[in-house]
Amino acid sequence: MNEVKQVNAAHKVEYAAAPHVIAVAPGRFHLIGEHSWFFKDKTLSMAVNLPVYIAVSKRSDSSLKFYFKQSGERKRANLSSLKFKREDKWANAVKAIVYGYASGGFSVSGMDVTVYSDILPSAGFGITTAIKAASAVAIRALFNMKCSDVEMLQAIERGNKLFLEIGNYNADNYAAVYSKAGKLLITDHSKGTYDYVEFPFKDKVLLLTDARVPRISVWNEKSIHEAANALLLGELRERKKNVYGGWRYEKNVTDVNEVLAVVSEDTRRKLLCIMREHDDVLNARDALKKNDFGKFARAVNHSHASMKELFEISCPEIDWILKRVGELEPNLEQLSNPVTCGRITGKGFGRCLYAFMRDSDKMNFKSKLAEYERIFGFHPSTYEVVPADGAHIVKA
Q: pTM for the whole thing?
């Protein structure tokens, strides 16, 4: 029985009726640039084959019932009193989409909803965003809405801002909705647009790992998101016609230090990290275009070093795992042209990482994770992933 049949069966058992619509959306992670969105920069993302399914069917009343198959949890709400409730956890993501459509003038009624995902939202990997994207696609189809993808994204944005009271992050939504199998997606936050780049490294295995380290914020990331800091970085931008996106940051160290001299040393380091991330995204894109894994790996590894040393969001556990990734290449002469790479991933202070390696290195890497568990006491979860399609309807 495939996953779609399992979703269909779960909905039938829970609600004594087959779903009218089933939608699926991919998990997602950001390779580079997830912390520079506030400064209107670029983010390189990959939607991956960690699917979230949403099954929906209409009700004859205004009730909303939610069921998460894997967790066995059930939640309920009503259209007439739709509110955010902390205890509703994952169901708030679906409610936000219902709110987003209703507040935008689209007609909705009561419905039964089944969420089906082998990975819980708490793990990261864009699962909460996938719940929203799949819900948006499913609800649009359920009520035959005359609603474009752009209007659907606006509904998601309303749900985020007005119902969940969180910011919108275009790279999350674009990756969940617009991604294509075999491609990565680059979001240009200054223009509100996205672009594709082929993923050429067919000889590499990509492993996403949840290190299971408790999420501890060592500093408030919002402290860097000040208009004054954005203006400073704006002074350091240079127009470049031959550069993807049309600009790069100033390279002259003296000029950079002069502009950033007005902020604290801690803020200066984090702004330098944002500038380095811009170059890392561009270098990674160029490497993807040229099928140059060595250059791509150097950009990824350089980005992790920035996250660790300048942005200060890594931790000893993740650094330990990534050091083992680097050691998968025993020939020190090849380190200038690496065959592996990896980086912490996740907005804020994530506990996840990704690693590219040769298929022959996979078992060695997993043995290192077993050693990690013995040393640190956390039981990691690892998933082998490939680029996947964005949210869409599937047949029940």
A: 0.94
Q: 391 Cβ partners below 8 Å, 6+ apart?
A: 23, 24, 25, 26, 130, 133, 134, 136, 137, 176, 177
Query: Using CA atoms, how far apart are residues 270 and 11, in angstroms rounded to an integer?
Result: 47
Nearest Cα neighbor of 346 from 50, 159, 128, 53 is 128
Q: Which residues are catalytic?
A: 172
Cα–Cα distances in Å, from 318 out to 246, 280, 350, 352, 362?
A: 34, 20, 10, 8, 17
Contact 349, 218 (CB under 8 A): yes
Q: Which ranges constitute the DSSP H helices of 35-144?
A: 91-102, 127-142
Structure tokens at 310: 């300048």
Cβ-contact 307, 269 below 8 angstroms: no
> pLDDT-derived band of residue 348, with 50, 70 and 90 as boundaries?
low
Q: Name the β-bridge partners of 248.
A: 238
- Of the chain, the percentage scoring pLDDT greater than 90 comes to 89
What pLDDT score does 122 carry? 83
Which tokens is 151 given?
């209007």
Q: H helices of the chain, where?
A: 3-15, 91-102, 127-142, 149-158, 170-178, 227-235, 253-259, 265-290, 293-309, 316-326, 362-376
Query: What are the pLDDT digits (tens) for 249-274?
Result: 999 999 999 999 999 999 999 999 99
Q: What is the C-alpha separation between 141 and 43, in angstroms, rounded?
A: 30
Non-local (6+) Cβ contacts of 269 within 8 A are 309, 310, 311, 312
Q: What is the mean pLDDT of residues 196-213?
A: 96
